[in-house]
Amino acid sequence: MSVTISESQERARANRKDAGGARREELLRAAAECFDDLGYAATTVELIAARAQTSRPTFYAYFRSKDEILLALVDRVAAELEATQSLAGIDTTDPREVIAATMRAYADGVFANGGLVALFDAMAPVRDDVAVIWERMIRRTHRRYTAYLAALDPGTVDLCLEPAALVRILNDIIHHGAKRVARGSAAERERFIADQIRVAERLIGIREVPVG
Protein backbone atom coordinates (compact mmCIF):
# COMPACT_ATOMS: atom_id res chain seq x y z
CA MET A 1 0.00 0.00 0.00
CA SER A 2 1.37 3.42 -0.95
CA VAL A 3 1.85 6.08 1.73
CA THR A 4 1.50 9.75 0.84
CA ILE A 5 4.02 12.34 2.00
CA SER A 6 1.45 13.93 4.30
CA GLU A 7 0.74 10.59 5.98
CA SER A 8 4.46 10.00 6.42
CA GLN A 9 4.87 13.46 7.92
CA GLU A 10 1.98 12.91 10.33
CA ARG A 11 3.46 9.61 11.48
CA ALA A 12 6.89 11.16 11.98
CA ARG A 13 5.37 14.08 13.89
CA ALA A 14 3.40 11.70 16.12
CA ASN A 15 6.54 9.69 16.82
CA ARG A 16 8.43 12.85 17.81
CA LYS A 17 5.59 13.86 20.12
CA ASP A 18 5.59 10.46 21.83
CA ALA A 19 9.37 10.50 22.15
CA GLY A 20 9.44 14.02 23.56
CA GLY A 21 12.96 15.35 23.26
CA ALA A 22 14.90 18.53 23.81
CA ARG A 23 13.93 20.19 20.52
CA ARG A 24 10.20 19.84 21.17
CA GLU A 25 10.68 21.23 24.68
CA GLU A 26 12.61 24.18 23.26
CA LEU A 27 9.76 24.95 20.86
CA LEU A 28 7.18 24.73 23.65
CA ARG A 29 9.26 27.00 25.86
CA ALA A 30 9.72 29.49 23.03
CA ALA A 31 6.01 29.47 22.22
CA ALA A 32 5.15 30.04 25.88
CA GLU A 33 7.48 33.04 26.01
CA CYS A 34 6.08 34.49 22.77
CA PHE A 35 2.45 34.06 23.83
CA ASP A 36 3.26 35.57 27.21
CA ASP A 37 5.20 38.53 25.78
CA LEU A 38 3.22 39.24 22.61
CA GLY A 39 -0.16 37.58 22.98
CA TYR A 40 -1.57 34.90 20.71
CA ALA A 41 -2.56 37.05 17.73
CA ALA A 42 0.83 38.74 17.35
CA THR A 43 2.82 35.52 17.68
CA THR A 44 3.80 33.75 14.48
CA VAL A 45 5.45 30.44 13.71
CA GLU A 46 8.48 32.41 12.50
CA LEU A 47 8.78 34.18 15.86
CA ILE A 48 8.49 30.94 17.78
CA ALA A 49 11.14 29.28 15.60
CA ALA A 50 13.45 32.29 15.96
CA ARG A 51 13.01 32.34 19.75
CA ALA A 52 13.87 28.61 19.81
CA GLN A 53 16.88 29.31 17.56
CA THR A 54 15.64 26.95 14.91
CA SER A 55 13.82 27.07 11.55
CA ARG A 56 10.22 26.99 10.30
CA PRO A 57 10.69 23.51 8.79
CA THR A 58 11.90 22.25 12.17
CA PHE A 59 8.84 23.77 13.84
CA TYR A 60 6.57 21.96 11.38
CA ALA A 61 8.40 18.73 12.01
CA TYR A 62 6.97 18.83 15.53
CA PHE A 63 3.74 20.83 15.27
CA ARG A 64 1.19 21.29 12.50
CA SER A 65 0.49 24.93 13.35
CA LYS A 66 0.53 27.71 15.89
CA ASP A 67 -2.84 26.40 17.07
CA GLU A 68 -1.42 22.97 17.80
CA ILE A 69 1.46 24.27 19.90
CA LEU A 70 -0.99 26.55 21.73
CA LEU A 71 -3.18 23.59 22.65
CA ALA A 72 -0.14 21.61 23.75
CA LEU A 73 0.64 24.43 26.17
CA VAL A 74 -2.96 24.68 27.37
CA ASP A 75 -2.90 20.96 28.09
CA ARG A 76 0.43 21.19 29.90
CA VAL A 77 -0.49 24.15 32.12
CA ALA A 78 -3.90 22.64 32.90
CA ALA A 79 -2.25 19.38 33.95
CA GLU A 80 0.23 21.24 36.16
CA LEU A 81 -2.51 23.20 37.92
CA GLU A 82 -4.67 20.12 38.39
CA ALA A 83 -1.72 18.23 39.86
CA THR A 84 -1.27 20.89 42.55
CA GLN A 85 -4.52 19.74 44.12
CA SER A 86 -3.38 16.15 44.58
CA LEU A 87 -2.99 15.03 48.17
CA ALA A 88 -0.62 12.21 47.23
CA GLY A 89 2.53 14.01 48.41
CA ILE A 90 1.06 15.56 51.56
CA ASP A 91 2.04 13.62 54.68
CA THR A 92 -0.64 14.98 56.99
CA THR A 93 -4.38 14.79 57.55
CA ASP A 94 -4.54 18.11 59.41
CA PRO A 95 -7.02 20.25 57.39
CA ARG A 96 -5.08 23.42 58.16
CA GLU A 97 -1.87 21.99 56.70
CA VAL A 98 -3.56 20.31 53.74
CA ILE A 99 -5.40 23.48 52.70
CA ALA A 100 -2.28 25.60 53.15
CA ALA A 101 -0.19 23.19 51.07
CA THR A 102 -2.67 22.90 48.20
CA MET A 103 -3.38 26.64 48.04
CA ARG A 104 0.33 27.42 48.03
CA ALA A 105 0.95 24.82 45.32
CA TYR A 106 -1.84 26.20 43.13
CA ALA A 107 -0.63 29.79 43.49
CA ASP A 108 2.93 28.71 42.68
CA GLY A 109 1.58 26.93 39.60
CA VAL A 110 0.00 30.17 38.39
CA PHE A 111 3.14 32.16 39.20
CA ALA A 112 5.32 29.69 37.27
CA ASN A 113 3.27 30.12 34.10
CA GLY A 114 3.42 33.88 33.88
CA GLY A 115 0.70 35.38 31.72
CA LEU A 116 -0.33 32.09 30.13
CA VAL A 117 -3.02 31.44 32.73
CA ALA A 118 -4.57 34.85 32.01
CA LEU A 119 -4.30 34.20 28.27
CA PHE A 120 -6.03 30.83 28.51
CA ASP A 121 -8.74 32.28 30.75
CA ALA A 122 -9.42 34.91 28.08
CA MET A 123 -9.38 32.44 25.20
CA ALA A 124 -11.58 29.72 26.73
CA PRO A 125 -14.88 31.63 26.34
CA VAL A 126 -14.26 32.24 22.62
CA ARG A 127 -12.41 29.09 21.54
CA ASP A 128 -14.01 25.70 22.02
CA ASP A 129 -10.72 23.81 21.60
CA VAL A 130 -9.16 25.77 24.48
CA ALA A 131 -12.33 25.58 26.57
CA VAL A 132 -12.51 21.78 26.38
CA ILE A 133 -9.12 21.45 28.06
CA TRP A 134 -9.21 24.47 30.36
CA GLU A 135 -12.72 24.04 31.71
CA ARG A 136 -12.12 20.33 32.31
CA MET A 137 -9.21 21.27 34.57
CA ILE A 138 -11.39 23.74 36.47
CA ARG A 139 -14.19 21.19 36.90
CA ARG A 140 -11.78 18.54 38.15
CA THR A 141 -10.05 20.82 40.65
CA HIS A 142 -13.42 22.05 41.93
CA ARG A 143 -14.73 18.49 42.24
CA ARG A 144 -11.64 17.28 44.09
CA TYR A 145 -11.63 20.23 46.51
CA THR A 146 -15.39 19.88 47.10
CA ALA A 147 -15.07 16.17 47.86
CA TYR A 148 -12.25 16.90 50.31
CA LEU A 149 -14.23 19.52 52.23
CA ALA A 150 -17.38 17.40 52.26
CA ALA A 151 -15.47 14.47 53.77
CA LEU A 152 -13.93 16.44 56.64
CA ASP A 153 -14.97 15.60 60.18
CA PRO A 154 -17.60 18.21 61.22
CA GLY A 155 -15.78 18.43 64.51
CA THR A 156 -12.71 19.91 62.79
CA VAL A 157 -14.39 22.54 60.57
CA ASP A 158 -17.40 24.86 60.48
CA LEU A 159 -18.00 25.59 56.79
CA CYS A 160 -19.66 28.96 56.16
CA LEU A 161 -21.32 27.63 52.97
CA GLU A 162 -22.04 24.25 51.46
CA PRO A 163 -18.81 22.75 50.03
CA ALA A 164 -19.38 23.33 46.29
CA ALA A 165 -20.27 27.02 46.74
CA LEU A 166 -17.35 27.57 49.09
CA VAL A 167 -14.92 25.92 46.67
CA ARG A 168 -16.03 28.18 43.81
CA ILE A 169 -15.28 31.24 45.93
CA LEU A 170 -11.92 29.98 47.20
CA ASN A 171 -10.76 28.85 43.76
CA ASP A 172 -11.75 32.15 42.17
CA ILE A 173 -9.84 34.05 44.86
CA ILE A 174 -6.61 32.07 44.46
CA HIS A 175 -6.82 31.66 40.68
CA HIS A 176 -7.53 35.26 39.70
CA GLY A 177 -5.58 36.79 42.58
CA ALA A 178 -2.45 34.84 41.71
CA LYS A 179 -2.65 36.12 38.13
CA ARG A 180 -2.61 39.70 39.39
CA VAL A 181 0.55 39.26 41.47
CA ALA A 182 2.36 36.77 39.22
CA ARG A 183 4.83 39.44 38.08
CA GLY A 184 5.26 40.93 41.52
CA SER A 185 8.22 40.52 43.82
CA ALA A 186 8.85 37.35 45.79
CA ALA A 187 7.72 39.19 48.93
CA GLU A 188 4.46 40.29 47.28
CA ARG A 189 3.72 36.77 46.09
CA GLU A 190 4.46 35.30 49.51
CA ARG A 191 2.22 37.87 51.21
CA PHE A 192 -0.56 37.04 48.76
CA ILE A 193 -0.32 33.32 49.53
CA ALA A 194 -0.28 33.89 53.28
CA ASP A 195 -3.32 36.17 53.03
CA GLN A 196 -5.26 33.64 50.92
CA ILE A 197 -4.50 30.84 53.36
CA ARG A 198 -5.83 32.95 56.23
CA VAL A 199 -9.00 33.76 54.25
CA ALA A 200 -9.51 30.06 53.47
CA GLU A 201 -9.06 29.09 57.11
CA ARG A 202 -11.72 31.62 58.15
CA LEU A 203 -14.24 30.61 55.48
CA ILE A 204 -13.71 26.90 56.05
CA GLY A 205 -13.90 27.50 59.79
CA ILE A 206 -11.00 25.31 60.83
CA ARG A 207 -11.33 24.56 64.51
CA GLU A 208 -8.46 24.35 66.93
CA VAL A 209 -8.13 20.72 67.99
CA PRO A 210 -7.10 20.33 71.65
CA VAL A 211 -3.81 18.52 72.15
CA GLY A 212 -3.85 15.48 74.40
Fold topology:
Elements: H1 5-19, H2 22-38, H3 45-51, H4 56-62, H5 66-83, H6 95-112, H7 116-123, H8 128-151, H9 163-181, H10 186-204
Helix pairs in contact: 2-3, 2-5, 5-6, 5-8, 6-9, 6-10, 8-9, 9-10
Report on the structure:
By secondary structure, this protein is mostly helical. It has 2 domains: 1-63, Homeodomain-like (Arc Repressor Mutant, subunit A); 72-204, Tetracycline Repressor, domain 2 (Orthogonal Bundle). The chain is built from 10 helices and no strands. The chain has helices at 5-19, 22-38, 45-51, 56-62, 66-83, 95-112, 116-123, 128-151, 163-181, 186-204. α5 packs antiparallel against α6 (95-112). Residues 44-63 bind DNA. It comes from Tsukamurella pseudospumae. It holds the Pfam family TetR_N. Residues 21-81 form the HTH tetR-type domain. InterPro entries: Homeodomain-like_sf, HTH-type_TetR-like_transc_reg, HTH_TetR.
- What's the overall geometry? elongated
* CATH homology-level superfamily of the largest domain: Tetracycline Repressor, domain 2
At CATH level 3, the topology of the largest domain is: Tetracycline Repressor, domain 2
Structural class: mainly alpha
Classify the helix fraction into a percent range.
Answer: over 70%
Taking all Cα atoms into account, the compactness measure Rg is 21 Å
Mean pLDDT: 90
Q: What's the main sheet like?
A: none
Supply the CATH class of the largest domain.
Mainly Alpha
Q: What is the number of beta strands?
A: 0
Order of SSEs: HHHHHHHHHH
Give the termini distance in whole angstroms.
76 Å
Provide the low-confidence segments as ranges. 1-5
Keywords: DNA-binding, Transcription, Transcription regulation
Protein name: TetR family transcriptional regulator
GO molecular function: DNA-binding transcription factor activity; transcription cis-regulatory region binding
Pfam families: TetR_N
